[in-house]
Amino acid sequence: MTFAERRPVTLLICALGGEGGGVLAQWLVETATRSGYSAQSTSIPGVAQRTGSTTYYFEVFPVPLAELGGRKPVFSLYPVPGALDVLVSSELLETVRHIGNGMTCADRTLVVSSSSRTLTTAEKLQMADGRASSEELLKVVQQYSRSARIFDMSAVAQETGTVLSAVLFGAIAGSGALPFSREAFEQTIRQSGRGVEPSLRGFARAFEIVAGGHAAQTPASAAAPAPAGLPPDLASAFPVSTHAMLGAGHARMLEYQDRDYAGLYVQRMKRILAAERAGDPLGERGFSTTSETARYLALWMAFDDIVRVADLKCRASRFARVRREVKAQDGELLRIYDHFKPGLPEVAALLPRTWARVLIAWDRRRQRAGKTALALRLKVGVHTISGFLALRFLASLKWLRKRGNRFAQEQAMIERWLAAVEQGARSHWQLGHEIALCGRLVKGYGSTNDRGKDSLLHVLGHLAVGGQWDLPQARAEAIRAARTAALADDAGMELDKTLAKYGAAPLPVKAQPIMWVKKRRGTTA
To answer: What is the C-alpha separation between 146 and 86, in angstroms, rounded?
Structure first.
């Protein structure tokens, strides 16, 4: 092939804000120049993460300048869709977004991408699980690329204590797509003069993963987290298909409360398993009702309260994570301040039922009189001895949780939901499964948690148990539609429409106090 027939190697870098994409592009140009090749790089800045990431386009002519006889290659300023040799991205959905823009070619483009996700605003706003499926995204990458090298670059960056740009640099070098030696890449990092040793560690780790063929080639090779183990006696009592979710739930109960609470979790799950076996004796559905109940029961039983929050705030793993996030060096002092605003409901949650009712009733009377709810604003320095000991004291009150008002309320609602799951599963598998999935409605804390429980109890009372239905499948379909509507908006309008469609009463309207503010003298309306 003559020089005239040779074409530049084209590479597009897609980086999110703050990930060092500009530094990476500069390193590539410096490596090419030092190695004696002609190269060019241009960038197109984006305005936000999802309205357009900053892209860096790099071209290099794969023949050394010394062999061109004074001739100079002509480079393009912008990437041409379908004419990329390498697409490099630090986030999986960002990779697929550029594939959707037509940048890759199935018989030409090598994709080097991180499998990690930075959730978009649209994904976070969903009341249900709004995340795009990583498995589906990986399938798109496989379909529209010649080959793919995919691994968790964020995890490698944390493991080696470096920035993401160094990991990307190592992945590009390990792919062999550019005509530079490994020593040339490493020399560029050394001459940068900042964070050299961590950057070299991250570079080397990524280089080994890609060059050694340890990066994912297909969606099936994406590693899933290992499930929590079950004690042998529990493993023998439950089907294998339920072990992953049940093991995670059992471990969560032990960490959240104690062995007795974990035992209560197992007893409840045995009831659900027996009910599902009654409705599906052959296990044709893979005992998915038991698995889904295990998931949402664990989340509900481990509800958030001030004891739980204090426990999480003063863990050693949290201090280590904060130090990594702010990139604090060894020997540097780190101060952490947590802001709390506990109200009377949070305090009453740990009190006996009689005391809690009196306290909450008093606060409600104050609010009806036009006063704001009582809340204590706190700023706690967790790095101080006094602040840390205060949180540790709160975290040690697990024993008080079981004696509190909220614990009794939560357990009563849980039992009502489980009874509906049992009854539905014995009647028809689909009905029990849909009621089990309604556990998804209980999430978050504060008003969000209250709305979810109100919606769940209303669906149970008017659709799962009440009403006249000819077939269990029809009741199951109504419950599924109501659950989907409840997760569609937090105002409950969609749920009310769905309830009316199936002849059920809408959610009761809750009274809201009207706050009157006295106007100061001399001010206008």
So the answer is: 10
